[in-house]
Amino acid sequence: MNKSLLKSRRQFLQGTALSSVFLGFSLPVQAQPVSEELQQTLPDSMLKAGSNFSNYGQPSIYEKDIIRWISANPNVPGNGVSWTPLEELQGTITPNGLHYERHHNGVPDINPSSHEIMIDGLVDKPLTFSIDALKRYPQIRKICFIECGGNSNAGWRSAPIQSAAGYVHGLVSNAEWTGVPLRLLLNECGIQAEAKWAIAEAADGAALNVSLPIEKLLDDAILALYQNGERLRPENGYPVRLLLPGWEGIVNVKWLRQLKLVEQPAMTRDETAQYTDLLPTGKARQFSFTMQAKSLITSPSVGMTLPDNPGIYQVTGLAWSGNGKIRKVEVSADGGDTWVQAELSDPVLDKAFTRFSLPWQWQGQYAILQSRATDETGYQQPSRNTLISERGDNSFFHYNAIVSWEINEDGQISHIYV
Amino acid sequence: MNKSLLKSRRQFLQGTALSSVFLGFSLPVQAQPVSEELQQTLPDSMLKAGSNFSNYGQPSIYEKDIIRWISANPNVPGNGVSWTPLEELQGTITPNGLHYERHHNGVPDINPSSHEIMIDGLVDKPLTFSIDALKRYPQIRKICFIECGGNSNAGWRSAPIQSAAGYVHGLVSNAEWTGVPLRLLLNECGIQAEAKWAIAEAADGAALNVSLPIEKLLDDAILALYQNGERLRPENGYPVRLLLPGWEGIVNVKWLRQLKLVEQPAMTRDETAQYTDLLPTGKARQFSFTMQAKSLITSPSVGMTLPDNPGIYQVTGLAWSGNGKIRKVEVSADGGDTWVQAELSDPVLDKAFTRFSLPWQWQGQYAILQSRATDETGYQQPSRNTLISERGDNSFFHYNAIVSWEINEDGQISHIYV
């Protein structure tokens, strides 16, 4: 942070009462008087018939730039991610076309009529389940987020990255998933007493597999068949994926083909070489499944410039926690010295995106906007310094620190560390 | 209903206790033993890399037949509907590509950068609001259904139609809508004491306009900008639509361009010649805005055939009410003689799709499946006979009677009136 901005910040803090910066009510902004010309002119769209009905709708051509950004490894086919443009979205549901992707070897082409899920290993009766068979079971739905364990990993870098919010934090999305409670199928197979883990394998080219504790699978795991009402998208696991609410993305195994019940975890590549973090003690965090509480101001955010007509701005963003519901989100405009509680949009759901917002008075002053989530267990999203003091600087996964947006007197917004 | 089926029905009623037909628990069904061959064979999808990341995802090619069916008037460009395939969906959210359409003159092409909403008439300050201006206001979200007033109108015909459930009842969809509370803008304009109604006009070729009571606009009306997280789809009102939760589709004016505050309704074409129903008294129901409680079993439903391996089937469907939350949904397998309460999927939301389900034991017996919704006001979905006794047979709109699916001994399902 340069000196002139620091000075501005001090002036701001000294001169402005908090209550006049965050407003508990909204003020009129931005409306224009109606001209006679406007009242007497019909827009072109009223002078002709519009376009036809469609069998499956698509976004407006005027929104063609609202896309998932792709970051792919050129050396491994289909290895990489695509990011949800969080800063362009509103509400809490991620539309299926924009749900983030993480593949290790691309999106497999799987004909649902020949796909089966096999449950074997330490069970009394090894069984297979076709997709048609799964549809005969009771289905439940769960609105929840899925977040890649590597989301926000740019935060571990020594300098703040200036990419758009979704291009850093958008490996998380939120959808309504519907499918069969896994416990029904496990119980049908008969779980043997020694079975403590299950190795879940995907039917993709990477043969992705991970070890999962049986307790979670018997608790709230779902074999998801539907995503926001329709059948899963191919890139989200069609024809069936595992859903483990609140747990890191990779264990929500897409294109699921097998669950093998075992005594011990298999120590696969993706739970040893990957998805673990080296701690300052020399030990590695492993099987760190739960995604901890996190929040992000999506608007205004890095790369945006506040319009040149100052006044009220709605600060809004998303909070989520793999531990349960979000209890509160606080927002600061002074880099964390003072905090104001934001409004949470009802209904606040378990392990789901929670939209927060509050009006903010911007009159051209320097500011550092931050948000801080607390979940129902009392866990509070840490500052970056706290996170690094606990986890060291050899980590890549599970970054959930408070994010800081610096706004200068021209309304330009940068990502900073404070 | 033919005699042999009636006889079957009597036999069924006499011979079977209700508790053995509707089960409060689930039973294993349809699993197959694991073969050694299956354990040792890798599917083709694991033998090669999959396809690439995409900027905006699409449904699986194996789901290409899951579409909106189009019923358009060949004599008027863009006049008609397309239907949501309710029987193919699960959960409660309708994905944006499958949200039903109703247009009077097609989908207008509106550039958001030049679109404005004008509020004039009996206000102190007539004002216009650009899309950018609207984005500066506080936004709220609402998960709710929108239902065309003409949905299910085939129910008024003298003989039961045999089209798929969504092709008769699918002019209703459910989404998360986000936008600006209209009351903020109306208050900014200053509502004059004589203003009791507003005439809302769309910027489409039909210049669709309707009169709306000011109380609703000040209550829960939203100028919706986002639909399931992303900007509205063109066919759903891009760049901005009016959302009046629980009220018939037409008053949720798409492509909104003007609200003119007035003393009396304008008696436009779509609130006189259309969207009214002639009652037996000779009077017409007019301004019958609220969509009353309704439910529909989506699976199993007409046109489906139950598989030839009898056992447990999940009866599931949707219920909704413009009055508020659904309190209960009851299901009958004997044409309404006896009822069992279905399970409602949490969270049950105000004026939103509510998913109900219960397991059903089918062993090849004749059955008539029905569902009956009751909302939190105590309003109960009527039988077809009750609806017609109250409303006569000159109606076209607001059909919400109980729907009956007849299942014969071969598992074939037909739509019947009982």
TrEMBL record, chains A, B:
Listed A to Z, the keywords are: Metal-binding, Molybdenum, Oxidoreductase, Signal
Q: Which cofactor does it need?
A: Mo-molybdopterin
Q: Which residue positions does the secretion signal occupy? A: 1-31
> Short name of one Pfam family for this protein?
Oxidored_molyb
| Presence of keyword Nucleotide-binding | no
The protein's matches in InterPro entries, at most eight in alphabetical order, are given as: Ig_E-set, MoCF_OxRdtse_dimer, Mopterin_OxRdtase_euk, OxRdtase_Mopterin-bd_dom, OxRdtase_Mopterin-bd_sf, Sulfite_DH_SoxC, TAT_signal
**What residues does the Moybdenum cofactor oxidoreductase dimerisation domain cover?**
289-394
Residue ranges of domain Oxidoreductase molybdopterin-binding in the record: 104-266
- What protein am I looking at? Sulfite dehydrogenase
Q: What is the lineage of its organism?
A: Bacteria, Pseudomonadati, Pseudomonadota, Gammaproteobacteria, Thiotrichales
Gene from which the chain derives: soxC
